[in-house]
C-alpha cells in the first residue's frame, strides 16, 4: 500500500551536515505521517523525529537542537536535515509510516547508512 525508500546517507566528518530523503509512493502522500528512526551498531532501533500530515513535528529531546524534519508534499518527500554530526550518530536511518483503516499497518524503508568519522 505504501512504499518508502531512503537516500542521502554516506560518510561525513564530525561537525558536518547531511540531508536524508524519504520518498513515498502507493497512496496520497499528504495523508500519511512520516517518522525517522535509527539503529546504532549493536543497539535497538530508536525514535528520531516525526512529522504529521499537517506539518507538525516532534523530536527526540537529545536530537532536536541538531536535526530538522520537513516534508514536501508536491515531491512526495520527507527530509531529515542533520547538522553538527557526531560519531555517535553513526547508524542506519529508516523512515516509516503507519496507516489506520480497516486494519493498522506499519511500513518501513530499507534504511540508509550514515557514518560519522572523528
Give the topology, please:
Elements lengths: L2 E5 L2 E4 L4 E8 L8 E6 L6 E6 L5 E3 L7 E6 L4 E6 L8 E10 L3 E5 L3 E6 L1
Helicity, as a percent range: under 10%
Number of helices: 0
Instruction: State the shape.
Output: globular
Task: State the secondary-structure class.
Answer: mainly beta
- How large is the radius of gyration? 14 Å
Average per-residue pLDDT, rounded, comes to: 95
Taking the alpha carbons of the first and last residues, their distance comes to 40 Å
Strand share of the residues? over 45%
| Sheet of most strands | 7 strands, mixed
Low-pLDDT parts are none
3D structure, described in words:
The chain is 0% helix and 55% strand. It contains no helices and eleven strands. With 118 residues, it is mainly beta. The mean pLDDT is 95.
What labels would you give this structure?
118 residues; mainly beta; seven-stranded mixed beta sheet; four-stranded antiparallel beta sheet; 11 strands; 55% strand
What can be said about this structure in brief?
This protein is mostly beta strands and 118 residues long. It contains no helices and eleven strands.
